Structure formats: C-alpha cells, structure tokens
Amino acid sequence: MSKDHEYQPLSNDTRELLDEADVDAPSLQPTGIRKFSAWIMHHALAVLLVIETMALVVLVTVLLRRPSQADGGMPLGSQKVLYSPALSAVENEVKVYHLGFPGDLSPFQIPSSPELDLMWSDLYNFGVSRITKEEAARLPNKTHAIPGDPGHYIAELDVFHNLHCLNKVRMALDPDYYPDWRISTSNNHISAQKHATEHISHCIDWLRQSIMCHVDTSVIVWQWDSKANESRVKGNVAHTCRKFDKITEWAKERVLVNTYDPTVRIEDDIVIPVLHQEIS
C-alpha cells in the first residue's frame, strides 16, 4: 500500500460531526423510557442470576448423591434388591479362593468319608429358618405358617439350598460310596434311580441359574511364567464376598424349634402384592 493510500487522521470537521451525533443520540429517547428500560434490564439480570444459582445448587446436589463409577456404584433407582429378613446380616469381605489343584487344595477336597459328610452337613443343616409374621409379610412371595409355633413362618435362605444341591452333585460323582445317588447316564438308564437322576438334574440347573444371577465380576488374570516361557492363567485372585459366617449366625439364631409338619394348613391374613406368589 502506497503512502498516498495509507489511513489518514480524521479531519477536524469529521470529528465535530461525530461528536455532535454522540451528544444528541440519547436525547432522542424521552427520560421516562430510558428509566423504564434500565429498570427492566436491572430486574432481568437479577432474575437470571437467581435461576443460574438454583440450577447450580441442583447440579451440585445431584453430583454429590450419585455414586462414582470408581466405586462401582449405581443410582439407587436402578438397583432392584428384594427384601430378605437376612439383609441386616450381610457384610462384605475380600477373599481369595483355593485353586483346587495339588498344592492349594481346600479342606473339602478329601475322599468321601463320614468326616467329609459332616463337613458338608455343617454348612447348611441349620438352613431352614423360622421368621416372624412381620418378616413374612414383607417377602416377595408368600410362605406358610409353622404349625405349633404361633406367629412364626418357615423360610430358607437360598445359599443353604445351593449348598445342599452342590453336596448332592458331589455325592452323585462318587456312586460307589453313595449308591443311593447313582444317576442315569446317556448310555446307562437306571429306572430305579429316577428320583436321584431328576434331583441331580434340578440341582445342576439351579446352581447354573444361581451363578448367573450373582455374576461374580472378580477378574481372573494372566501372568508371565518365566519357567514355562508363556503367560498362564492365575485364579488365585481377590473376590468381594459376603461373609458366610455372618449369615450362618443369622440362620442358627432362627432354627426351627419343632419338626415342621407340611400336612397342616394354616390360613392367615397376609397378602403379598406381587405376581407369581406361588411356585409350582
């Protein structure tokens, strides 16, 4: 750009015209209108400030109440936890499983014997419980009153049924020691063992559903084995578990005081407002 075309300072005449325009512009609006406009602007800003403050308070409250992803939490609205009278006894702990191979066997991995039978029986022989009528009324499915024990109802925590089923599967795996639990196989139908075969089939599928229901998300890892010169699976990892001892304490405090008679029908006024109250 040549010097002839560079920007030049405003001439005195031009500045005077602009100054006059700036001085005269506000006078185009009456004083009342200017005051009303200022009042509207002032109050609009105040209302906007209040709305923004309220929105900020709501946002902070929501963030504080929401569990973090790092904690593995879920919003309460997305959790579906059915009532159990034993929920008060639930307490978590971290445990590492026995691998179950030589070098890391559990106490339950011994040959079939009266000693092993007793160990298994001690895991669940107290599993059928007596609960109060108030507790029974809160269950998602209706249960029956206990004859001869007014005000109490029969119940069993599913963990003890699972252990019963697993024990029966164990016995079926050693039919020479437990002949009553010998089951039919694909090439060996034993009509006399129909009950055992059906019972074991029930137990295996019940355990399958229970495992899928509880979905243990503990992570099994692979680690490098320098001797084998390859990475190998490592199952001795930490798990988040519910303390079994706390649940057994709860159950042992509520064992049946009398032998349960399933042939006695007792009517009551408990109404459970949930579908599928009776399990066929």
Automatic annotation (TrEMBL):
Q: Which residues cross the membrane?
A: 40-64
Q: Which UniProt keywords apply?
A: Membrane, Transmembrane, Transmembrane helix
Q: Does the keyword Endoplasmic reticulum apply?
A: no
Q: Which pathway is this protein engaged in?
A: Mycotoxin biosynthesis
The organism's superkingdom is given as Eukaryota
Biological process (GO) annotations? Answer: mycotoxin biosynthetic process
- InterPro entries in alphabetical order: UstYa-like (IPR021765)
Question: Pfam families, from UniProt?
Answer: UstYa
Presence of the UniProt keyword Transmembrane helix in the record: yes
Family, per the entry?
Belongs to the ustYa family.
- By what name is this protein known? Tat pathway signal sequence
Species classification:
Eukaryota, Fungi, Dikarya, Basidiomycota, Agaricomycotina
